[in-house]
């Protein structure tokens, strides 16, 4: 079974069953076709602002992350759709992380910024005065949604709705810190080339639009999980608890094998009562401060934010005999 990924680490690490340092797809008989990241699907549908010579001049030696060379050139030469259409993959896994990033305007054309890597190139240094930044979520959707329609009209000539999996994404507001606290993600980790929770509402509306448009399989688990410094080593708005990726992987494989009983998977294991021993062990290894976490739990619950359930499960596992937890269990 071969998968293409159009998205980010949200889906790449999901396809690796949470093993973020591996490559490809986890599991025997599973294969990765293309991992096409740093590209949003509106930019992919529009002409390139770069000449063939400019694209060819970009060298991996210029980049801080040498592995980003293919993603950068894909964004510059607008080869994303062509690669997907010519691929022999069975499934397309999509997440819309890159829609929260700013895109770059050059003249009358636009392209995905590919994080900060483009700014390391000679092409950028020679033409730096020609670029402006913008974000689709700050523009009227009537200007860009027709390109969403056009993208999926073309893609569905290759992949039908039963072979497209939308892995929904919620950018993190909080992260589990190594200090045992639930911390706010600082603004300096929400730069123009990164995801940002200020666009979460618009992103969810766009995902709903796409679901209505093409009726793909949907994995809607990201909103139940926190970002996790313990797993990733550093906080980031898209770096979730390892359990998110494990559960997403399991559901993606079940979908690909025709074993999924639901079109939309939107209940995590800790709510369904099917929690793994591995996740329980990870929670116990990193207990949260109960007083500050309870305060946040009640705030989230008052806001109807499903994240409160994650905190409740963690506290009930680590502090089962605390009177406040016992009372909440009785109330629920």
UniProtKB/TrEMBL annotation:
Top-rank lineage group of the source organism: Bacteria
Family matches, as InterPro entries: DUF6270 (IPR046237)
Pfam families: DUF6270 (PF19786)
Protein name: Uncharacterized protein
Species the sequence originates in: Anaerovibrio lipolyticus DSM 3074
């Amino acid at each position: 079974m071969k998968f293409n990924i159009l998205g980010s680490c949200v889906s790449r690490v999901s396809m690796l069953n949470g093993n973020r340092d591996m490559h490809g797809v986890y599991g025997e008989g599973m294969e990765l076709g293309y991992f096409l990241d740093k590209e949003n699907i509106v930019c992919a549908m529009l002409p390139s602002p770069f000449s063939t010579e400019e694209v060819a001049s970009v060298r991996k030696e210029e980049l801080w992350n040498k592995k980003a060379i293919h993603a950068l050139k894909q964004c510059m030469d607008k080869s994303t759709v062509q690669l997907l259409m010519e691929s022999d993959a069975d499934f397309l896994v999509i997440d819309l992380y890159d829609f929260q990033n700013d895109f770059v305007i050059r003249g009358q054309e636009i392209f995905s910024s590919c994080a900060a890597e483009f700014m390391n190139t000679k092409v950028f240094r020679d033409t730096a005065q020609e670029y402006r930044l913008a974000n689709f979520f700050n523009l009227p959707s009537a200007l860009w949604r027709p390109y969403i329609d056009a993208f999926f009209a073309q893609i569905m000539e290759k992949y039908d709705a039963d072979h497209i999996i939308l892995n929904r994404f919620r950018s993190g507001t909080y992260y589990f810190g190594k200090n045992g606290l639930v911390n706010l993600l600082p603004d300096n980790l929400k730069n123009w080339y990164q995801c940002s929770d200020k666009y979460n509402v618009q992103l969810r509306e766009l995902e709903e639009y796409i679901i209505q448009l093409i009726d793909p399989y949907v994995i809607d688990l990201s909103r139940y999980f926190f970002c996790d410094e313990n797993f990733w080593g550093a906080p980031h708005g898209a770096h979730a608890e390892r359990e998110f990726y494990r559960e997403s992987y399991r559901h993606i494989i079940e979908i690909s094998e025709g074993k999924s009983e639901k079109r939309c998977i939107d209940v995590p294991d800790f709510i369904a009562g099917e929690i793994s021993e591995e996740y329980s062990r990870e929670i116990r290894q990193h207990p949260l401060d109960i007083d500050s976490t309870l305060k946040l739990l009640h705030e989230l619950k008052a806001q109807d934010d499903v994240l409160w359930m994650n905190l409740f499960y963690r506290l009930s596992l680590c502090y089962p005999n605390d009177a406040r937890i016992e009372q909440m269990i009785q109330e629920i």
